[in-house]
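**Backbone shape codes:**
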Amino acid sequence: MIKVKDKIIEKTRPYHFELKHLIVLFVILILFQVLISFIYKSSLQGFIIKAQKSYQQDFAERSANLTATSLEMLLESTLEQQVSEQNTPK
């Protein structure tokens, strides 16, 4: 186990990492995360707006269909009632 650790240390020894390298890497990582967050926010907001418009249109169509059906049934029952009153002897 120690030999593996020594091998890793020996392989990385030619590469000289300083604190400024790590700071640059950390700053790049943070900027990338911020960029991803803005992209996610804008795409999610667009999706929510599209979904809301779709649901509003679906609700309006269903309400219109229900209202038309109700009016049609009301008119049919009213006409049937008038016809049956005219046909019944008084």
About this structure: The chain has two helices and no strands. The mean pLDDT is 89.
